[in-house]
Write a structure and sequence with these properties.
The protein contains 11 helices and 23 strands. It has 492 residues and is α+β, with helices and mostly antiparallel strands.
Length: 492
Amino acid sequence: MKDNFVSKLETDNFYIGSFDAYIEESKELIKRNSRISEDEVNDILKTLPTTYRATILDKEGNYIGFIGLYNIDAKDDVASLRFEVNRSISEEEKIEIVNEFRKYISDSINITKLDEVFFSTNKKVEVEKQEVYPSADIIISNNLLVPGISEELLEKYSEDYAIPRLQMPFTIMSKDKPIGIIGLSSLIWSNKRANLNIFLDKKLGDEIVNELPGEIIDDYINYAHASSVHNISLSVSGSNNNLLDILKNTNMNYYGSIPYGAKTGDNVESNMMFQHVPFMKKDSGIYIPDNRVASISSFETDSKELSKKIELDNGFKMVSPIAFEEENIDFNSVLNSHIKAMQNREEFTIPLGEDKYFLQKGNEKYGITKALMNYTYVVLDENNNYAGYINTLRTNADGKNVEVEIGIDPKLQNRGLGTKVINSFYNELFKTGVASVTSSVFEFNNPSIKLHEKVAELNGIRLNAYYINGRLWDMNIYSKVNDEIKESKFHR
């Protein structure tokens, strides 16, 4: 078994994991089984999305083939499957591998049906066609929600809002005219969660409160739950009083706020967070705190670039991958250590991320090589040995709020290194005018929870937000605020 092979699935007789670890063997297998040229082999590989293809090894660590998806149709939850092996296997072994992989793709991207299975050995090729019926649409009883959004309406609302790519989009109607659009983003099937997006017609002003009854939102939420989305979360700017008032008449519950996670005009303000899980009802006497507002100009700085290298105690340092060459750091050595650390993710001090994919060594577009090169900092010891990383996941409020993740090698935990790394990163971000920093930590990740309890404030708990090991886990939201902020009065 090669060092860069990461086993992600396991059956009684096989390991299923990193495709790129055995990519040359897989190319040879396709070429030999199908008797085609190298260019044709590469064309076939281009049809298999990198995230959903994997190598198969037997329990002795011998390469036997690969498996992967193509022709993915996420709308109807259907795809085709290519499965090739270098020796004859029994029908029971074939079913064992396919069933485990199908379970994985069902959990990961909600692909529940295969319309074609291409199976190849060195002696035969089988193509099994299956008739697939599109999923039936789930009907919403509320006639004020119309499936889909017209291009004209989307263009109109895009003038006022930055609208992400929406899934399950609907138009909100009132008195035979559109007054808003609603849909999901950041839909992660494997974790059974998504973010809710509501964009309302700004021309209606305060009248929108009377035009949009809360039960319309409840009906849409129930529709999303019926489509296997368990946790639905909605973020609302603290000054958006109209939508906040509408939410009081829904079954969504307030669960926390991210300080300075939203931007309105020249200010940053609270990002109020609401959620719903199946059968949740409105809490009685729900309390939404005052909006926290600060002028961007009050904490702007001249510094805009992060340092390439930050020295820590005891010889440790945080180094940007773009500085590896000038610092004479062996990237491949760091990368291989990082891959090994990812295999021990249950002990690794990180929020576990969103991925359910098979770790790839990568090419120019995908894989862990590209991921590591894009990390903000890699943590190294005095001999440039890998010790962990800290990374910017995404930015909000035009870059004034930053979401981060941190990973410290388990062998180096409980020595204060994680505290030093995260506090140094906070300070570096605040020097560039960042207002607040946020981390999401799942409840089973005790090392990361202990770390964040020391350095940040718990702002909220998103219920049942991560599905792993047969159950749903909560997500803790932590934030640290820039001490330089001069807050205006707290107000709604």
